[in-house]
Amino acid sequence: MGSTALGGAAPARAGLAPKIVRLLANHPQFRITVMTADRKAGEQFGSVFPHLITQDLPNLVAIKDADFSDVDAVFCCLPHGTTQEIIKGLPQQLKIVDLSADFRLRNINEYAEWYGHAHRAPELQEEAVYGLTEVLRDEIRNARLVANPGCYPTSIQLPLVPLIKAKLIKLSNIIIDAKSGVTGAGRGAKEANLYTEIAEGIHAYGIKGHRHVPEVEQGLSEAAESKVTISFTPNLICMKRGMQSTMFVEMAPGVTVSDLYQHLKSTYEGEEFVKLLNGSNVPHTRHVVGSNYCFMNVFEDRIPGRAIIISVIDNLVKGASGQAVQNLNLMMGLPENMGLQYQPLFP
């Protein structure tokens, strides 16, 4: 039905490209006709990512040499700040899912504050739809440009947005302790990501202000229809992939943990990719690896009036490429789960 282009340049974002290629390999309706690159232009995709050498893919070309005449949709895996200029130059008829952060923040002044430069395509920002699929499905279905959410914001907003909309939790004192595998930092060579730096340990980063904070606060504030400020600390774990967000919330007067559980259960009962675990079962990252699932559960805190919510995803699938394919399925009028029914890899 549709042909797609896959754009990637710097290693930090290009690491997402092979994940999308893997998902599209078994997609019955999409085929890849154009693949762009920067320093790898002219090479075969399988020589850059040998685990995909069995796929019949076009050679990588520079963006300036790409022919979009036979393309219906584009996945952009470009670095933050680059996507704005590239998308401005793409044909208007293309459906676009952008996996960078360039169109996630609706307020361009807030974008400039967090990303260190002015937004270069404010007119496109007005058009962009935030791609948290289970929350904004109708808007995504009718969109031309979708800003795919970040991994931390996906794992946090899926449980918290419904509870905030239902006024079941207070808007103050929301504390989030989140942990991610090393792939959350991209594929680029960085000293901090060397094996000897991360092995046998865990460390916090972005403590004063991670760039996903305004994205999370934007989504929670829209759900609350008032300003929400969070305490958020991300941590790097010595594992390849996976993400866990542990959220500490204060319940509204008269609300119980059972009320939170039942509301999340009714919210996501018909959803294929968001699952509320039964009873006291604790979500584990190893149970969602390689899949587009988000597992979550709610627990009573030992402090009266507070609850603990745990949410896990594969940061590279539901936190990035899987949600991107899910969104493009919607945009193209296809079943939302098409090409995404991979079961988790365990052990």
From TrEMBL:
Its EC number is 1.2.1.38. GO terms for molecular function: N-acetyl-gamma-glutamyl-phosphate reductase activity; NAD binding; NADP+ binding. Pathway: Amino-acid biosynthesis; L-arginine biosynthesis; N(2)-acetyl-L-ornithine from L-glutamate: step 3/4. Keywords: Amino-acid biosynthesis, Arginine biosynthesis, NADP, Oxidoreductase. It catalyses: N-acetyl-L-glutamate 5-semialdehyde + phosphate + NADP(+) = N-acetyl-L-glutamyl 5-phosphate + NADPH + H(+). PROSITE patterns: ARGC. Residues 13-143 form the Semialdehyde dehydrogenase NAD-binding domain. GO terms for biological process: L-arginine biosynthetic process. The active site is at C151. Gene3D superfamilies: Dihydrodipicolinate Reductase, domain 2 (3.30.360.10), NAD(P)-binding Rossmann-like Domain (3.40.50.720). CDD domains: AGPR_1_C, AGPR_1_N. Belongs to the NAGSA dehydrogenase family. Type 1 subfamily. This is Probable N-acetyl-gamma-glutamyl-phosphate reductase, chloroplastic. The lineage of its organism: Eukaryota, Viridiplantae, Streptophyta, Embryophyta, Tracheophyta.
